[in-house]
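Hey, can you fold this one?
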Amino acid sequence: MEGFINTIVGYIWSDALVYLALAVGIYFTVATRGVQFRYLKEMIRLLFDKNNSGQGVSSFQAFCMALSGRIGVGNIAGVATAIAAGGPGAVFWMIVMGLLGGASAFIESTLAQVYKESADKQYRGGSPYYIEKGLKMKPFAIFVAAVICLSYGVLVPGVQANTISDSFSTAFGLSPAITGLIVIMPLAFIIFGGIKRIARFADKVVPLMAIFYILMMAVVLVANISAIPSMIALIVKSAFDMDAVFGGIVGTAVSWGVRRAVFSNVAGAGEATFSSAAAEVSHPAKQELVQSFSVYVDTVLVCTATALMILSTGMYNVADPDGTMLVENMPNVAAGTAFTQAAISTVFLDFGPAFVAIAIFLFAWTCLLAYYYIAETTLVYLDNKLRYPYFKTILKIVFLIICYVGSVQSTGMMWALGDIGFGAMCYLNFIAIVLLGKIAFKVLKDYDAQMKKGLNPVFDPRKVGIDNADFWVGYSDKHKQ
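Sure. Predicted structure:
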């Protein structure tokens, strides 16, 4: 069974998905005239924009909810595996994909806001909603919603729970069974409390979590400051076939750099569209700029922090695609969290493994919160009349069971199932946002025009020729300038 699953993973996560993600990022960057760069200052300002009726969440809370989904094991274990398979050059392409991904994140989050709706006394939206209303393809939307609900409710959560279990076993010697209980008990308290409780938790924990991790990286880099110039040169040379050791794996560096960036920041994959739709803003582009910024935090800051720690301390191995070791600084150590634990241990000694275990717990656990919210939102979409409210209770119970099972099952199986669920989502959403790109371009053009006039942008879909955006018709009538 595991061999069959790995075969499916190989097909889904082929270079086709890598180049599709790269092409979509380039296309939207050009089409939006680099929106993720033009409005960088505005992104930061909008983080703290207050516009809350009590039904939606604030921009900052939506940002933190999205960030809790973006920042996870991919930022620690995923970066290490990218270096192990693609060499230091993979870090360069990971950053490039992160920068391009800001445009993809803007487009998908714009669409989520445009076609959101009020349901169950909350704002709901995401890829199934904009596929149905924007593309007018309800059967496709239902299929996508079912795939997402299955992926984030059943297939993907085990990856995060399993990584927590492995790190706790290494650092504290805890059995997977005990770690599983540590994961699901507080998780149950949060998810049974609803989206507002998720948002309140995320906007307190996530910023502190990311800041503390980056500060730890800074300490390690300062301790290894003499290695920084050569490290940066190695990254650039390896990315462009100018290094004698890693020159032969440039293609692999590009592939793994893009792959890990997509897995980590999920820009364009649809994951952040659900939290984006929950935000209360006066114009869709506002929250979309905030989501673009979350991609920077995830990849350009957090992923890069991990990469720099590993490379500056030399705690990594790199293998050629045929299995030959190009660099073996850590004999018999598998790529993953062990690289990061060893890097931090060079400065903090025995505290290294414990710190990484705690960081993984916070990163992965908040990621699980985001996964549950996504699964619940798609379930509400599938049961849009709320005729079967007990379905949400069933989902909560199944989700908690999966998290516990993921804690005690084999790592390989959990990652394989997660890759299948996440990869399938990527293909579906990339296709949808490319087809709906013109809608997002209209929204951006309207935002640009209002900003040039010095206005606080308020969105009216009728003025830009967008239909089926019923929520915004009522909103604009109440907030006419």
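The chain has 23 helices and four strands. Let me know if you want another pass with a different chain boundary.
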